[in-house]
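Lab notebook: predicted structure, single chain.

Context: the supervisor wants predicted structures on file for every construct in the current expression panel, including those that have not yet been purified. This is the next one on the list. No modifications to the sequence; it matches the entry in the shared construct table.
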Amino acid sequence: MTRRRLLHARSRRARRRALGPRALGPRTLAAVPLAAFALAGAGCSVKGGDNANLIVGKQQFVAKCGSCHTLARANTKGIIGPNLDEAFRQGLAEGAGRSTIRGIVEGQVLNPNPEGAMPKNLAGGATLRDIAAYVEQVAARGGQDSGLLATAVAPAGAGKPAVETGGKLSIPASPTGQLAYVTNKATATPGPVTVEMPNTSGVTHNIAVQQGTNGPVLGASSFISRGSASVKVTLKPGTYTFFCQVPGHRQAGMEGTVTVK
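Prediction complete. Output recorded below exactly as produced.
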């Protein structure tokens, strides 16, 4: 090995050690390098490095990480943790290697900051490999996922409108972990209504009912991560808003409209 190559190799190793598995804060991740732009602007294949499954990676990222992190291509809008697109953007612009993103994601999940919000044992093995591979390929990349990746996760709130029957209105939280209900539309008849929110996602949500879009809150359920919560309200003809009261969830789009007539 020539002296120039030896110095280059040492510099590269030192840079990797310096990046290491540090806290996923915006300033830290902004310095992460990314390379390999062959896929830029062309969508992503369904297979990543080490035969990772990017479809599963996207689904598991949404389910396990999306309630805390924003990642544009996954359409997640969590605000508890760093925005992963912004966190890695500077490194991309500086031409560093994309594989570094994968290493840091895996490192942070396996060794979360004890003072941070990321739980222990969030993911491991093949699941973590798939999640990290998906983030590696899409972080800070414009456009939208294409092909099978585009339909890997159902759009938030895209389900059929909920319909009140016999005084009960069921509006489940999204089972995928998205900050959304399965639908953003519902209809009901005037009178007492029990609004139920089944939740199988593992993410904490509730459901509240508000008169109009800025009126008083008529009632709210308890907060649950699994099970079913409900709230009883009396509705007159008009339009109401249902939404989640967990900080940041309504802002991320977890709300919808009830039309009473």
